[in-house]
Amino acid sequence: MTRPGVTRPQPDGVLSVRSAPVRAARQLGKRAFRERARSFLAEGPQAVTEALARPGVVTELFVTSEGRARHRELTDRAVAAGIAVHQVGSDVMAQLAQTITPQGVVAVCRFVDVPIAALLGQTPRLVVVLVSVRDPGNAGTVVRTADAAGADGVVFTAASVDPYNAKCVRSSAGSLFHLPVVAGPPLPDVITGLRAAGLQVLAADGSAAGVLDGPGGPDLARPTAWLFGNEAWGLPDTLLELADAAVAVPIYGQAESLNLAAAAAVCLYASARRSRESP
């Protein structure tokens, strides 16, 4: 047993928790350090695979000996791309990873967000806008859903969770690397830009008079931006007034409501279906 205050010797080539690369990577668990370095951590083979598919995003890779053996193709791709690959022990990996049972591979990635002008300049037809969404698991799931529904981008407005939060990155299951993400703009500016780009702005609101599939509902064949609000209190009236229309997802059973991620899935797939049916 190692005595208190004594560092356990590391095998040759294996970085200790005190090494400079590990110390720098551990700091990325805090938002302030992420923003300063413009870097974040992506954990697990799925996220790392998708990050490696975007040239220039991954700057370092940390693996355990077990992770290297299990995910040899990832380390080979990183080495071929000139990315530094660091081997660490399971104790160090536990400090880098944010899960109870780490999968033995963590990548340091550059920020991938884009300015709102870059997203709008691509003539988007379906955009997701998260308004004061605080739960990283919900936000990451919405990013994944938006990707699956073929959305053109996701906007995290000011006061929403950091898209590079470890749980948000993990919940996106790699989709964070698939579609444009905008981080931090104020909602009024976003809505002005969306309308200028030709999108209608719809607010998902459980108490709205208009119903998603009801008579007189919105024309979902049009290019659309969906606003989704905070998990607990939704969208306040002052923000609902900024939208072209408020729309409720119909509840046919006895459930009180849908959670954010479920409601987003229903709305986005309704838009995606109508958009693909339209000439």
Helix content: 25-40%
How many domain regions? 2
Question: What is the CATH homologous superfamily assignment of the largest domain?
Answer: SPOUT methyltransferase, trefoil knot domain
The assigned CATH architecture of the largest domain is 3-Layer(aba) Sandwich
CATH class of the largest domain, named Alpha Beta
Spatial sequence of strands, sheet with the most strands = 8-7-6-11-9-12-10
Q: Structural class, from helix and strand content?
A: alpha/beta
Outline the biggest β-sheet: 7 strands, parallel
Uncertain spans: 1-12
Count of DSSP H/I helices: 12
Strand content: 15-25%
**Rough outline:** elongated
CATH topology of the largest domain: Alpha/beta knot
Q: Give the N-terminus to C-terminus distance in angstroms.
A: 71 Å
Radius of gyration: 21 Å
The average pLDDT value, as a whole number, equals: 92
Strand tally is 12
Helix and strand run? EHHEHEHHEHEHEHEHEHEEEHEH
Question: How would you characterize the overall build of this protein?
Answer:
This protein folds into two domains: 14-110, 60s Ribosomal Protein L30, Chain: A (2-Layer Sandwich); 116-277, SPOUT methyltransferase, trefoil knot domain (Alpha/beta knot, 3-Layer(aba) Sandwich), CATH 3.40.1280. The chain contains twelve helices and twelve strands. The chain has helices at 20-27, 31-37, 45-52, 65-70, 72-80, 90-96, 116-120, 136-148, 166-171, 187-196, 237-240, 260-277; strands at 14-15, 39-43, 58-63, 84-88, 105-110, 126-130, 153-156, 181-183, 200-204, 210-211, 224-228, 245-248. It has a seven-stranded parallel beta sheet. Helix 9 links the parallel strand 7 and strand 8. Helix 8 runs parallel beside helix 12 (260-277). It is elongated.
